[in-house]
Amino acid sequence: MSDSLELVFLGTGTSHGVPMIGCDCEVCMSDDPRDRRFRTSVAIALPEAAPTDGRVILIDVSPEFRLAAIANRLHRVDAILLTHAHADHIIGMDDIRRYNDIAGNAIDCFGNARTIATTRRVFAYTSRPYNGDSWPCVNYQVIDAPRETCGVKVTPIPLLHGREEILGFRIGGLAYCTDCSAIPPASRALLEDLDLLVVDSVRYKPHPTHFNVAGALEAIAEIRPRQALLTHIAHEIRHATILSELPDGVAPAYDGLRVKVPL
What we know:
It is a single chain. The chain has seven helices and 14 strands. The chain is an alpha/beta fold. It has a single domain (4-262), classed as Ribonuclease Z/Hydroxyacylglutathione hydrolase-like (Metallo-beta-lactamase, Chain A, 4-Layer Sandwich), CATH 3.60.15. α6 links the parallel β11 (196-200) and β12. The protein is globular, with a radius of gyration of 17 Å. The relative contact order is 0.18.
């Protein structure tokens, strides 16, 4: 479908990743490749035709970003959206420098004010002008309303991650809402008529700053997307097991999964 974007899951795991260091549980020792999860990040490949011209939007830059980019043959990044500035979502920022060299310029990076301030502080050197010297060069911008980048409208979705205000993002029929424990009523109005909702679902037990499986399913039932995928999954959840438990139209995402979504 020429008017569709392709969502590529670069990572679907929690801040620990799966397998987790020093753990011999059945999921961490699983031989199912879907149980091996890099920290959470996705790439959105836009249609080749104008006005999007095959550009790629990256959401979050995880610690394994370089490995995920190589594994998924991610040959360009034209813009970055940051959900929040926790380490598992920004710490791969240094590897953006390769995409600066490919593009020959700085790359726009959007987030809420707190996320941008923290990321600029942690990666202060990324704000220097690009001059071809192979360092990351990022043009940080606060996004607090819908705006256009890479030829598409990006709508920020305010979410709660515990008590912290973070962002999800909507592009066309896709909404990506990771690391959330609540979706405020005003944000639910931005999630109507979705083809695909990607939502946080960290474990079965309740969690103070994330949806658990039951919470994610409740949000999905209220939002009523045509399809939903779960992400940010911890080692308490085995892919094959939860896949057999979920209702129709809902599935766990896994690293390397590619999904077409109408724009």
